[in-house]
Amino acid sequence: MAATTIFCKNMILRYSAVIILLCVNVVGTQYATASIAFKDVTKKTGITFKHTDGGSGKFYIMETVTAGVALFDYDNDGDIDIYFLNGSALKGAKYKTPPRNALYRNDGNFKFTDVTDESGLGDTGFGLGVAVADYDNDGDLDVYLNNYGPNVLYSNNGDGSFSDVTKKAGVGDGNHVGAGTCFFDMDNDGDLDLYVSKYVTFSYEKNVTITVEGFDAYVNPGAYVFPSDSLYRNNGDGTFTDVSKESGIADHRGSGMGTICADYDNDGDTDVFVANDSMENFLFQNDGKGNFEEVGLLAGTAYDFNGKVLGNMGVDCADYDNDGLLDFYVTSYSQQWATLYKNLGDGMFEDVTFSTGAGKETFSNPTWGTGFADFDNDGDRDIFVAAGHLQPNIEKYSDQMTFNARNELLMNIGDGKFVNITEKAGKGLRVKLSSRGAVFGDLDNDGDIDAVILNTKSKPTILRNDSANNNHWIAINLKGVKSSRDGTGARVKVVTGKLSQIDEIHSGRSYQSHYGRRLHFGLGKHKKIDRIEVKWPSGTVDVLKDISADKLITITEGKNTIK
Amino acid sequence: MDTHPYHSQRQSANTRNRNVSAILIGVAIWLFSNPAISAAGESTARQQAAGFLKDQISAVSKQLLKDFPEDAETIKSATIFHRQCNTPGKAMKVLEKGLKYNPRNAELCDLMGQIAFEMGEYDKAITYWEKALKVSPSWLNLNNNIADAMLSSGKNSEAVKQLEESIANKNFKALPAPYRSRSYFLLGQGYMQLGKYEEAKNHYEKALKINPKYRRGNYWLGKVYLRLKQPVKAKQHMQIHRKQLTAKADRRSDLAEKNKLAVIDMSSNVELKAFPEIMAGLCLRGSELYGAHNKTKKSEKLLAQGKEALRKAITIYSKQSDIYRELGFLYLVTNSNLSDARELAEKAVALEGSAKNYFVLSLICDRNFDRTNAIIAIRKALELEPGNGMYRQKYNEMKKRKR
User: How far is CA B183 from CA B141, B165, B189, B211, in A?
Assistant: First the structure.
């Protein structure tokens, strides 16, 4: 071997060693022992639900985008139950037992019982999106399903059962391929209105199929007509009026997927963000009276950093940097980054995915369900991203993408930056399936946030948060009086020392899913909260002081007290 | 055998003219960017032709990489092939091996950078582009690539520094316009990220002055006007950007609307454009290598194999101009079947009037002593690609010659 070659090799080895040492130091001090850990406890939960996409080999587009999942306390017993959406037989498919949605009652300690039959929530429509709220202000939570085919509104009877009230309510919404959906009080009149996103207008006669390398594949939604979304105003008597046209919503046609309603501009009314697949996102700014202007282009949320259209999938919002403004996180297609839009406070957003590291490891495969949640209770929001490809044959013609993929966890390290800690966050994050909806809540009431993921054509994944830390927390239920009974749209600010956090109650979020009626704040080492402020959609403000941590409290509108 | 710079120059150009937004086929699948919409039978034939050439290229490249593992041209072709097949992981493996033999080959380093960039591995991309730049400091466009990767990994200040230094280089002005405008745009993006909006605006404007049609230029200018609290101007630019995107989407929708119930073949259309050129290039290079090692039989066999593969591809699918062109080119370079070569080139032009097809027709006419038609064809190629230096040089040569 030539002397120069040996010299070079030695130098490379030397430099490599130095680089490795440097890396170990940096990584070792900060993230080697990630403080978030999830365990896959699916098997012990008793949940037997298995998702079906309703396919028969014809590659109908809706097969690959189903479905969402909801977390809510359907029986008001203080723990969070799980509702899985399901596909149903599309043309050509046959099942011995028709697939249906499934409701599981939480019996505590991660044990669940299938109560689909007695609840009447076993909808057999083709499930895509779901939102949950008390639309009739009677003190229990109702369910709206945004299906392919007729949509369904289930009213909670208050005894653990539900009734289909779609016809009376007038929210069947035609025959489109549905997507995300949200309840929100668009005019702050105390009852909840309904936003219904739509993906594409589909008919079997106009089905488009594609092949890649000779393998059948699902087509881009651009092959179909994009419908406009629907907006229904709640009349306060159990019925709704379609106000899509007069509100300005019907002026925009899109390929809606994940949808969330939130007050991004802090003006006291609730706005609407719609993540559109393969076209610009919509940001509908509310004038407070239920009239909407689409401002996504100028706000900076329509496209990514480079002005490129993305295949947007799910969306969540939260104040990731604790600056008092709600930011958006949007998941997207393969070989695109999930995108973090930072709210700049003047009605504008900046795509800060690269500068914050919020997209790390989200590039290879499509990403779907997502949520900002403080998994380690340290006072800032981390990000969970569900992943998995939509093309079942992808591995036959790509050496980079896989149908089944691991989900990703991005830990907020407190300075507005994120670090992907998936590898170190427990065995629960080693599960590889093709995930869609993802939702987050404290399923065992132990003070940390667990996760439920719906996997297409497979069983769900139930992840128990086993993070080892001594951080404190507070969970807050809201009870509206003038505002909607369930507090949807209320803004809560929690102040502990220098740490100030905000959150809102959203109905419908992530990828066609619903969770988060019970607000959860991590408090770090703070055992006491200095101040909790609740701004209700009615304009009422409640302020509570000196509250001890580590418990679930209920705040009733106008009472300035906790229960 | 007559050699010609056509293939190596084309591949070099492909390598050097890295388009930042180059997307893998996987993206195209979903983004619907290059569909070949046709009746099911035609689609099947196209797929079969693509599949056949894929197998042939795979076998030839494997053989050549085994026999000449150090040959940079073969490594490059094999890499481009894998990239085209949406198997960048395999491309990376070929390059990793190849770089062991050619650690100072700037083009291979650049290719590695490109593939890493496309896979979202920005730090790796930076490493390889920096290696390429070290070997080839005059290759200033690499600064753009490095800065792009830096911006994509949040290293905004470093990106700005890289670009400022590149622009200050005395050779910067000599760079082709697309590279210069890209430098200014990236610099604008860097300043934008750093919150230096006036600087960002100045650089966007410089970029647009050089290249008024810069992709997404209006988006960026609109965005910076927003930050500078000039909403009217911002809206104007944003609306132009939106219109451009909407027009593109509408074209796709129209295409889809007209072809309901059709089978849309997303991959073979792309592959069949690339595979014939890769096949011909590999066979020529291999033949040259075997010849240089006194393995004449192997050299001749490989060329025959290339010609036979392209001939068979035509019998499977007869509507792809690239196959005809490359077969004609192989005849030309091997100085055989020159009248057939001309027929093939003419057929290629009849199927698709592309600059490449006209250029090869020109070369073949010239070889057939038909200088008049050679000049007509090369003029056509130049009309279609006025900035192509190779076409210009050949045209000037032909004009100077008396006959």
Answer: 8, 11, 10, 11
A305 contacts on B by Cβ (under 8 Å): 189
Nearest residue to A555 (alpha-carbon basis) of A539, A535, A538: A535
* pTM over cut 0.80: yes
**Cα B400 from chain centre:** 30
Calpha distance A422→A400 (Å, rounded): 19
Q: What ipTM was assigned to the predicted interfaces of this complex?
A: 0.81
Which tokens in the block code for residue A481?
């009086």
The structure tokens 């995915």 sit at: A353
Strands across the sheet containing A367-373: A367-373, A382-387, A408-412, A418-420
Nearest by CB to B220, from A307, A309, A397: name it: A307
CA angle B343, B345, B351 (to 5 degrees): 100
All structural domains of chain B, each given as residue ranges with its CATH number in brackets, are 20-60+265-352 (1.25.40.10), 140-259 (1.25.40.10)
**Which tens digits make up the pLDDT trace of B258-309?**
544 444 555 666 778 889 999 999 999 999 999 999 999 999 999 999 999 9
Instruction: For residue range A459-492, list pLDDT tens digits in order.
Output: 999 999 999 889 999 999 999 999 999 999 999 9
Q: Which residue has the tokens 């600010």?
A: A493
Please tell me the number of Cα atoms within 13 Å of A88 on its side-chain side: 17
Nearest to B252 among A222, A297, A298 (CB): A222
Per-residue DSSP letter, A543: E
> Quick one: CA torsion of A410, A411, A414, A419, rounded to 10 degrees?
-60
Cα A182 to Cα A162: distance, rounded to the nearest angstrom: 19
Question: Hey, what are B154's tokens?
Answer: 């949040």
CB B109 within 8 A of CB B102: no
Q: Measured between CB atoms, does B240 come within 8 Å of chain A?
A: no
* Residue A236 per-residue DSSP state: S
In the block, tokens 């689609």 appear at: B43
Helix B88-101 / helix B72-84 crossing angle, nearest 10 deg: 170
The answer to whether A296 contacts chain B (CB < 8 Å) is no
A247 contacts A292 by C-beta, under 8 angstroms: yes
- Longest distance between any two alpha carbons in chain B, whole Å: 72
Q: Give, for A252, the enclosing helix (H) or strand (E).
A: none
Interface test with B, best of A15, A398, A402, A420 (most B CBs within 10 A): A398
Identity at B376, one-letter amino acid code: I
Say whether A411 sits in a helix, a strand or coil: strand
